[in-house]
Amino acid sequence: MAETFDASLRRTHTCGQLRAADVGAAVRLCGWVRSYRNHGGVLFIDLRDRDGVTQVIFDPAGDKALHDRAAELRNEWVVAVGGTVQPRGEGRVNPEMPTGEIEVLAGELTLLNRSDPVPVEPDAKEEVAEETRLQYRYLDLRGAAMTRNLRLRHQICRAMRSVLDQRGFTEIETPFLTKSTPEGARDFLVPARNQPGCFYALPQSPQLFKQILMVAGQDRYYQLVRCFRDEDPRADRQVEFTQLDVEMSFVTEADVLELTNAVMAEVCRVAGRPFPQEVPVLTYAEAMEAYGSDRPDLRFEMPLRDVSRVVAGCEFKIFSQAVGAGGAVKALCAPGGGKLSRKQIDALAATATEFGAKGLCWCKVEPAALAGGTAKFLDESTQAGLRQACSAGEGDLLLMVADKPAVAARALGEIRVRLGAELKLYADDQFAWCWVTDFPLVEWDEAEQRWDSSHHPFTSPRGEDLDKLDTDPGSVLSRSYDIVCNGAELGGGSIRIHSPQLQRRIFKLLGISDEAAAERFGFFLEALRYGTPPHGGIALGLDRIVMMMAGGESIRDAIAFPKTLRGACPLTGAPAGADQRQLDELGIRIAQPPTGEDSNAGGD
Ligand code: ASP
Q: Which atom of ligand 1 lies at the shortest distance from residue 243's CA?
């Protein structure tokens, strides 16, 4: 085995590079043995590197010592192979492989390293538990699928940087060891050794720093930045994640939307995905009304219809009483949904109740009349009215919820998304983008009995709503926007408050006293006093964007070293206990020593 790697072993090509045009060339490749086969004495080695796989053959009719050494090679051993490119023999061309027309006839072999038998074959994704893949992440990343994702992530970051650079943005780093930034999650705290009893908080986002950079006259800021949010386990969330964070001065909503569209168009271009000329913009109210969601999946139409007027006077009490009590009856017409089984419809009803509705009414649309479910309670004219209001045709399924308007919309919105997938109302590679704007500024937090920000407390209310701030805060809309793709929120932001007085008013509305505001954000309120320009920005979730562009399903496939749902890293065993000496230095006493299981926990 070669203990040192010298210049004589340098590769001439990567394992993904050689083509028919290279036949006859003397080459040297370096890489890992992906597989080996012995066909009647001829040894076939598939040699892999980041770029691809090349077939190498060792002919027993040639150098015997060389052939004997090659026969010892095992999977994932690291070698340098010199040889000549030759066409593959009759019937052995592999059109699936970019290098499939050629092979390298080996003339020399240097073993650079051995590998123990691997617990995870690179690229053996399906058969291996994800926790094992994460534990041996270096083997997992060695495979083509993850290598592709990491390259794509790099290209996407580059695309983002290039658009922002062209438009005069400066990339500026902001601190990780800082004070709390309110984004609605728990903070990760880091004890400060030099100030016992004090803690840094890891930033949930650079929100306050990017606004301070606008006060500082930096005008156009961006950063591909890690954010830390100690959230409870949720599928496709990571406790640390990366976002493209942007802030601009002297802009309106339209400027931020236009810039983001330009960034995403370039991202889609490098990822080979379509991006529309015009991205539809819906207000929050429109999105909730038509799709029952603030992140509507527009890969398919199937809008919600308000049929309250149609059913207000009908005999069916569930409908007429709901409307009479100020509620609404909303309906969804699922094209071709008539073929759904009773079991499938029951599952939809369970979704409705899970999202707060009292129940789900349904009927199948048949040539003569509505049938099944609720149909028998509906008179002829109500049936006809419903068919017309929902543009229902034969073979469709009508689904209705009678409840408070928001509850009915939400429940049917969830059902709509389920049905889109179940009835295959879109193609696998379809993309549908939209903007959702004008979110309510605040939401009522029932548990805490106070108003809470829908985005964060630095979001500007609309100018025309300012006089409702004290009288009817729930009706105040904000200058906020989210970008949505295929029913997933990929980013969001807002025009910010730039007046210290208005900022204080909003804190008050949120139940944050002057003292609490001074203690938590005093430095920021102080900064606002010194000539803050009007400004606004956005943050885009990089991990989710990469996942979508890669056509993947798990956000973890877009991240080199992700954490499990419980925030653990199976590779390193983090989080783990600390030495007593470290704890003493920090002045920390542990009330409950970590159990080995939890401190090293991996699984989801
Ligand atoms: N700071 C916000 C977030 O991280 C984004 C923004 O308002 O720009 O979600």
A: 4
∠ CA 544-548-550, rounded to 5°: 115
Q: What share of the chain is helix, strand, coil (3-state, %, to 5)?
A: 35, 25, 40
Cα(104)–Cα(324) distance, integer angstroms = 80
Atom of ligand 1 nearest to the CA of 480: 7
CA distance 604 to 592: 23
On the CB side of 249, CA atoms within 13 Å amount to 19
Atom of ligand 1 nearest to the CA of 204: 4
Centroid of ligand 1 to alpha carbon of 204 (angstroms)? 9
CA of 442 to the centre of ligand 1 (A): 16
Q: What sign has the CA pseudo-torsion 374, 380, 385, 390?
A: positive
What global pTM score does this model have?
0.94
Does a cis peptide bond (omega within 30 degrees of 0) precede residue 95? Answer: no
- Per-residue pLDDT tens for 369-394? 999 889 999 999 999 999 999 999 99
Residue type, 529: R
Mutate to test the pocket of ligand 1, among 240, 455, 490, 498 (most ligand atoms within 8 A of CB): 455
Q: Atom of ligand 1 at shortest distance to CA of 492?
A: 5
The residues lining ligand 1, judged by C-beta closer than 6 Å to any ligand atom, are: 183, 205, 207, 492-494, 537-539
- The position carrying tokens 């108003």 is 451
Phi/psi at 396 (nearest 5 deg)?
Answer: -85, 170
Q: Whose CA is nearest to atom 6 of ligand 1?
A: 493
Residue with CA closest to ligand 1 atom 4:
205
Q: How far apart are CA 187 and CA 561, in angstroms?
A: 21
Q: Any idea what the Cα angle at residue 30 is, between residues 29 and 35, rounded to 5°?
A: 95
The H or E element that residue 536 is part of is strand 535-541
- DSSP classification of residue 461: B
Q: What is the pLDDT of residues 482-517, one digit of tens each?
A: 999 999 999 999 999 999 999 999 999 999 999 999
